[in-house]
Structures are given as C-alpha cells and as structure tokens.
Design goal:
There is one protein chain. The two termini are 47 Å apart. The longest helix is centred in the middle third of the chain and has 29 residues, at 214-242. With 368 residues, the protein is an alpha/beta fold. The protein has helices at 2-17, 19-39, 58-69, 82-90, 104-111, 125-147, 171-192, 194-201, 204-209, 214-242, 252-276, 280-298, 310-315, 320-333, 342-362, and strands spanning 47-53, 73-75, 96-100, 113-121, 155-163. 65% of the residues lie in helices and 9% in strands. A 5-stranded mixed beta sheet has the order 2-1-3-4-5. It contains 15 helices and 5 strands. Helix 7 runs antiparallel to helix 10 (214-242) and helix 11 (252-276) runs antiparallel to helix 14. The chain has 2 domains: 47-163, abc type-2 transporter like domain (abc type-2 transporter like fold), CATH 3.40.1710.10; 171-362, no CATH class. The protein is elongated, with a radius of gyration of 27 Å.
C-alpha cells in the first residue's frame, strides 16, 4: 500500500509540474463555464430594430417607449423611406421593423381596432420568431391596460411579415453555417498536417534541395485542397437547391468567388499552423480545437453575436467564418450583390494576406 501511495504521489508531481496539463484540467472547464454561462445564449438582447412611425400620436409614442425600455431591443434611427429600410435589412443592420400607420390612434379609439405592421428578417427563423413574439407581447400588454378603463375592448392587430423566409424553414439558417464549418475544418485541418507530414516522413529535405522556391512549396500544398473544397461548395449548393429547395437568390458567380476567397483564407491559416507545429497530432489538435469551437460559437451560426458581452463581440471579428457566414446568407438568402458585402470581403482578403505573408516569412529553408 505504501508503494501504491508513492506512485500516486509521483503522478501528482508530474501533473502539477506540467503547465499544459494543469491548463486542460482547470483552465478549460472554467473557460467553458464562463463562455456557455454568460456569452452563448439563445436569449434575445439588444436586437437592432427600427420604428417607422407614420402616426406620431400618443398611442404610437407610448408603444415605442415600451419597446425602447425593453432590454430585448435597441431602436435605431426612425427610417421613413422604405428603400432605406430594405437596404438595412439586406445589410444586416436591423433585424425587425415596427411600422405604425397614419391615424393609428384615431382608428384605435374611434373604430376600436388598429393594425401595426411588424417585419422581421427570417433568414434566422428562430430569432425572427422570438423577436416578433416579444413585440407582440409588448403590444398586448399596452392593449390590456387600455381595456381596463374602456367601455368597448380595443384591439391592436400585429400584422407580421417574415422577410426572405416566409415559411420559416430551417435550411436558410443552417446551410450557410454548415458551409462555413465544413470548408473551415477541411481546408485548415488538411493543410495543417501537410507540411508537418513532410517533416515527419523526412521528405522535406528533398523539397528544400529542389530548385523550387519556398512560395511554390507552400502553394503546391494548398492547390489540391482548394480544388477539393470548391467541389465541396458545389455539392453543398446543389444539395441546397435541389434537395432542400433553397434557391440561390443572388449571383452564383459571386457566391463561388466569395467561397474561393474563404477557402484561400482557411488554407493560409492551415499552412500557418503547419509551419509552426512539429507533429501531425499537434497540428490536428490545434486545427480542430482552434477552429471548430470558434466557428461554431462566434460565427453567428448557433448563437447571435449581439447577445454576447462586448469583449466576445470584438473577439468574433477575428474569426473568418463569421464574415463568410454573413456573406453566404446575404447572397443565397437575401440576393445581395457585391456592393452589400464588400466590407466582409475586404476583411477576409486581409486575413488571408496576413497569414500568407506570415507563413512565407516563417517557412524555414533549413531543417533544425
């Protein structure tokens, strides 16, 4: 028994001396609790909406104040022009619009009935349903208070319209997310082990003594996975159109061009990991843990980013999948052209150039 206690004590010493093991044992659970407890939630908070008040009477102002007082919504400017409102929806600046008709209060008090139009971005059907439910609840509360002192009951009818996905199908939300997830994992993971594999098998020496320049060695690792990933894009889009009945509302050429840019970005990230690591196992672990979790959590695919704390909202900006997810939804679901996604395109291009230059500078022509 004494020998057993000695071995246990020795093992404790090994664990306590290894900082990486301690980080996995204690750091990862704490990080997961903080992220899942405070950051990742399906609750609606601070959703960007717009109030279009054509009535500008006491009743419309009272409902607007109630909506603004809620923690669920953040009211943007009073958009009066319908074209501006449509552009705001396409660019993702707003998620919902509440429109009061002219003579809203007059119709309510004299005819005991008045409509309110509620327009939601249903490219994320769950989020749109939650938003419209919250707005309808606020309107219902106001109606209940009015009816407490009314001789005849007043009735306010929210006329709900779902943009881009009136049938509230799930495909418009998960297809762009799955596309970003698949392309990120395949491109990063496969390229992450490519150069490391050459180091481990001893064939890197042959490549280094060849007349190839380092840039051609790096590009030769990326091109096959670029072509295979483009085949993945084609298969996903065709499955979406012909099996899931999700047509591409925008340009096919633009969709494939943006997908190519995202694949290139992922490939440069994978090559960077491959150059910095010394074993295939480490490269694969980093590519899986370092790309899978951020893509799922901070791309907007599973959890609305605007619900997260400000620090994590800022962190999400360095996740390439976030920008590609926005681009694919804008093209496939909303039919947006390049003018509506040029900012996201420039960000992806910047990330790709950064990792390509860093990888090229970090590539050593001599083995240690």
């Amino acid at each position: 028994m004494k020998q057993f206690a000695t071995f246990v004590k020795k093992e404790f010493y090994h664990v306590l001396r290894d900082r990486r093991t301690l980080l996995i044992l204690f750091g990862m659970p704490l990080a997961q609790i903080l992220i899942f407890g405070f950051a990742l939630t399906n609750e609606v908070k601070n959703a960007h909406i717009v109030i279009v008040d054509h009535a500008r009477d006491d009743a419309s102002k009272s409902i607007t104040e109630r909506i603004g007082a809620s923690n669920y919504f953040e009211i943007r400017e009073d958009v009066m022009d319908r074209n501006r409102m449509e552009s705001a929806f396409k660019e993702g600046q707003i998620r919902l619009a509440v429109i009061f008709p002219v003579n809203f209060q007059h119709d309510l008090f004299h005819q005991n009935h008045a409509p309110i139009q509620v327009i939601a971005d249903a490219s994320d059907p769950n989020y749109a349903t939650t938003l419209t439910s919250y707005v309808s609840s606020i309107i219902q509360d106001y109606q209940t208070e009015l009816n407490e002192t009314a001789a005849l009951p007043y009735r306010i009818t929210p006329q709900i319209r779902m943009l881009y996905n009136p049938q509230l199908k799930g495909a418009p939300n998960f297809v762009p997310g799955v596309m970003a997830l698949v392309l990120m994992l395949v491109s990063v993971m496969m390229t992450a082990i490519s150069i490391v594999r050459e180091k481990e098998t001893g064939t890197m020496e042959i490549l280094l003594v060849s007349p190839f320049k380092p840039i051609w060695v790096i590009l030769s690792k990326a091109v096959p996975y670029l072509i295979l990933s483009l085949i993945n894009v084609l298969s996903i889009v065709l499955m979406s159109v012909f099996v899931l009945q999700l047509p591409v509302a925008g340009s096919w050429v633009l969709l494939f061009a943006e997908s190519t840019l995202f694949i290139v970005t992922s490939l440069t990230l994978g090559i960077f990991i491959s150059i910095k690591t010394k074993s295939q196992q480490v490269a694969m672990l980093i590519s899986l843990m370092g790309m899978l979790l951020p893509t799922m959590m901070f791309s907007g695919f599973m959890f609305p980013i605007e619900n997260m704390p400000l620090a994590l909202q800022v962190f999400s900006n360095v996740v390439p999948a976030k920008w590609f997810y926005i681009i694919v939804k804008s093209i496939m679901i909303k039919g947006v052209g390049f003018a509506g996604i040029w900012k996201e395109t420039l960000i992806l291009l910047g990330i790709a150039l950064f990792f390509f230059v860093v990888s090229l500078k970090s590539f050593k022509i001599r083995l240690e």
